[in-house]
Amino acid sequence: MDTNKGFDFGCGCDKVVFFAFCALIYFLPISIALTDTFAALAVFFYLLKKIHGLVLAWPAPGNRLFDKIKYTARGMAPAPSILKRPIAILALVTFLSVLQSQFLGVSFYAFGGKFLKYIFIYFSFVETFVTPKRMKVFVWVFLISAFLVCLSGVAQHIYGVDFLAGRHLAPDGRLSSSFKFPNSLGIYLVVVLAVVVQQLYVESLRKRFSWTLGGLLILLFLAMFCMTWTFSRAAWGGFMLSLFFLMFTGRGKILYLVLLLGLFLSFSLPLLGEIRHVDLTSNSLPHLGNPFNSIGHFESIDRINFWKSAIFIIKKYPALGSGLNTYALMLKKFSLPNWYAHNGYLQIGAETGLVGLSCFLWMLFVLFRQGIKGIGIGMGSWSNILLQAGLAGLLGFLGESFFDNSLVSVQLAVLFWLMTGFTVAVLNLNNKNEG
Prior knowledge:
With 435 residues, the protein is mostly helical. It has helices spanning 9-27, 32-56, 65-76, 84-99, 104-128, 132-159, 182-204, 211-230, 233-249, 254-276, 303-316, 327-333, 344-375, 382-400, 410-434.
């Protein structure tokens, strides 16, 4: 009997997609070029696997053309998931927005080069990470990368330059590590800390020291140090929001999380006043005035002014917006302050209209509704722990996005869709384990 089955091309494509996602999460904070490269690699081999499956079971020559078209559509369709319908509707509305865009070429390019890439990242991740082993490997690659990013941030704080991307410390002392901006590092760390906090809690329950516990403790303090020195108050708010969510998911963690929050605030708040001369809610302290006016620093500009610009565009194009990726062009067209909206939701509303924004919010509602339901299944299991971490990290990300442009930044938008796929994949594993 011949036991040599030969090379399985579809399985090989699947393994390449798995490798590409691990490489993507590793290099995401380090290089935009490598982020795009591995995202494209994952999507390409995901589609190649789909095409290979179609070819293997192609209908007989006598079949009608309509049957072949229907078969092709079914074969290329993504696997069922809780977000399949919301994302399909979001994609349709976004495409309609593109068709009536004020800058048609720009919007078509963004739809094909950005939006569809994000959608394929989500679906290919959910279809690839279907085993506990793969998910655990992905998490540890993520944490190893985060550890290096935090070490690089500490080096930047001490020596003035990080060792991963060679970025210099900002003139005002804020850390960015391998990212271009301190705020980008801050929101990345919100997601990292959600995973670390959960993993550390589980390890601490074992009531014995291990190398894993020691490594997670070191990463926790490095990440909190770097988070503090970003002085990104939006990211701080996102971090606190994620901790509150984790408190909600389990009473046993409340004391642990309160102590963690107290430690962070006791260290960061005094530095915020001493170094930046601001507090959590305003850009000046009463006795010091606003120190940023003299140097024209971005944070001296009230975000409300940026939000008014986005609202102006929404009023001009309320239904389907001005078109995907046209925000900066519309600001120039109407002689508005030329900057991002610094509110991801308002920028989505400006570009894809209130219909597009509603579809995006509906997708998030479905994700969190199903995710929170899933938390009640298999409490204490590894998949449930990661599910809570994924939801907490996403909630912190979304909270931060109310004050920043993280949802439209290249690296951070990839991170958002990657973590959305991660959360749904973990939810699937969690429900499967219980079943």
